[in-house]
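Could you help me review a protein record that somebody else here produced? What it holds is a sequence and that sequence's fold in token form. I need someone to confirm that the token line plausibly describes how this chain folds. Take the sequence as given and treat only the tokens as open to question. This is what I was given:
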Amino acid sequence: MNLFRAPYMIPKMHKEADHPEKYSEEERYELARHVIRLMKTTGGIKTKAYGLENLPSEGGYMMYPNHQGKYDALGIIYTHKKPCSIVMDRAKSNTILVREFIDLLQGKRLDKKDVRQALTIINEVSEDVKKGKRYILFPEGGYDFNNRNNVCNFKAGSFKIALKTKAPIIPVALIDSYKVFNSFNLGPVTTQVHYLKPILFDEYGSLKTHEIAELVQRRIQEKIDSILLPET
């Protein structure tokens, strides 16, 4: 239903992405949110955000959400008013519109098969976060089709950036995000984005990466369970 907009919107996204000297981070981010807004309106998608007060008002931080499908990052970007970026698997980052979004947000493409390249990306993101930038990184690394809000194990390596930067970790619990593009659902969809309380370096700094992964996963799972499981 949005195909008629493609001849105008995709070149516009390319133009702003290719000329960051002309278009500020805020302008490029707002264009990304505008495209998401059009997609939501046309597709009957509603996204409700909770816990926005938990987002730090200053400085960089890392957002670690559970992963359900192709709409996950879009739901976060739409509800996260301040510019943020994303770390994404290079193999999945070059499809139409995904490529444009990554370029527009100056996201990072990580090659899971190239250890040296992955280390370079980790260092680049760490430097950005130290300078005040905000990133989304999905520690599950992938998702199952129609996963029905299941949370899989978080990968320890995803949290090396947090340890290098000592920045706040923001666990993000996504609910029903899979229904948008990764299920057999055909009707209107309402998704939820829950920004949980920051986990500060004072709390996670003495932990190993696998312990941080377990901590963040547990916080997200507890939040999802508190909303979806019936009261007993």
Summary: The longest strand covers residues 169-175. The chain has a mean pLDDT of 93. The chain is about 40% helix and 15% strand. The two ends are 44 Å apart (CA to CA).
